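User: Let's play a game. I give you a shape written as tokens, and you guess the letters that built it. Ready? Here's round one.
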């Protein structure tokens, strides 16, 4: 009888011993996130969206979440790939319906210092607004916000993370935008060779140094000094002036995309586009809002001798559009490109804090 009792009780004991430990319920965690900006100036972040560890993690999860697309096949990260400096090296991104986008996908980096609107035309005033638009765009993820929310609500992992980030499991588009904004604010590229040179940690090659001097020098119409005029639009720690400008890509008769004008409805903004950062520029081809230039060599050729005049071209382009352009030699153009390669930040391209959390 005793042996029968042991035979009967043994399986029960085994089941009890294999029972998983109870899962701790998710709780609100407002632990502040410390933003690592190196030697950059402090960004002016929105007061209504303080960075928290749990909020940043939720934004990271959403950035890589394919359920935000209609057919669950694409996430934000599919068109903003970390190894390509969170850009898309295709001329135009392809959405869930197999359709091409209308403009080249801009890189996602250092957006904490972009205060003048997002996208090439600035149609999204804040990063949180930008984060939600690709979800709804028929050419991109082609999902409705209610549809995306319903899929997230069915996932306990997301309900728990919303609790940690916001205090309860209510999932709204506003909270989705806030979380993704938090994550994208943390995506800081600040550790390139050029940054190390500024700190005296490395030296530039003769080609890189000559390219740096040309980059930061003005064109001399008398031909005495040598300069490429780049710094007027691509200066400061982020190598952009955060403005919308017409850089002489087309004449008035050739305009097919009027850029900023479609947002402001002002002819003054016709064919003006956001000046992109040149950080990691060697990793983010093709170039310009329509990806018309496949290489940096083509970009330099444009600014050297290929710029065109139009009614809204920037005054700063006066020497670029003149006959003969800037008159840069082949070696000078090569040196400028060598300098632009020093803006590549390998740490940013491989930082696990920005990678897929799944």
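Assistant: Ready! My guess for every position:
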């Amino acid at each position: 009888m005793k042996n029968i009792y042991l035979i009967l009780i043994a399986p029960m004991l085994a089941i009890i011993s294999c029972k998983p430990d109870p899962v701790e319920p998710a709780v609100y965690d407002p632990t502040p996130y410390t933003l690592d900006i190196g030697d950059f100036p402090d960004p002016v972040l929105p007061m209504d969206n303080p960075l928290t560890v749990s909020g940043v993690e939720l934004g990271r999860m959403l950035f890589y979440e394919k359920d935000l697309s209609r057919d669950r096949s694409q996430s934000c990260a599919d068109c903003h790939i970390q190894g390509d400096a969170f850009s898309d090296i295709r001329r135009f991104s392809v959405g869930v319906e197999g359709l091409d986008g209308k403009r080249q996908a801009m890189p996602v980096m250092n957006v904490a210092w972009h205060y003048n609107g997002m996208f090439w035309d600035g149609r999204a005033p804040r990063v949180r607004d930008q984060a939600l638009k690709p979800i709804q765009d028929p050419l991109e993820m082609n999902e409705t916000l209610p549809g995306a929310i319903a899929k997230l609500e069915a996932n306990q992992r997301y309900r728990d993370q919303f609790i940690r980030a916001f205090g309860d499991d209510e999932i709204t588009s506003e909270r989705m935008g806030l979380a993704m904004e938090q994550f994208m604010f943390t995506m800081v590229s600040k550790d390139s060779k050029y940054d190390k040179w500024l700190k005296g940690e490395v030296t530039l090659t003769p080609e890189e140094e000559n390219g740096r001097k040309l980059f930061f020098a003005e064109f001399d119409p008398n031909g005495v000094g040598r300069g490429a005029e780049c710094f007027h639009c691509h200066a400061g720690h982020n190598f952009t002036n955060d403005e919308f400008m017409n850089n002489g890509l087309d004449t008035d008769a050739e305009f097919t995309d009027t850029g900023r004008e479609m947002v402001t409805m002002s002819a003054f903004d016709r064919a003006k586009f956001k000046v992109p950062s040149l950080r990691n520029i060697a990793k983010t081809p093709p170039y310009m809002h329509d990806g018309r230039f496949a290489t940096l060599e083509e970009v330099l050729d444009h600014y050297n001798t290929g710029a065109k005049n139009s009614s809204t071209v920037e005054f700063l382009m006066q020497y670029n559009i003149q006959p003969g352009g800037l008159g840069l030699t082949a070696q000078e153009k090569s040196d400028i490109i060598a300098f632009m390669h020093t803006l590549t930040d390998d740490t940013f391209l491989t930082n696990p804090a920005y990678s897929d959390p799944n």
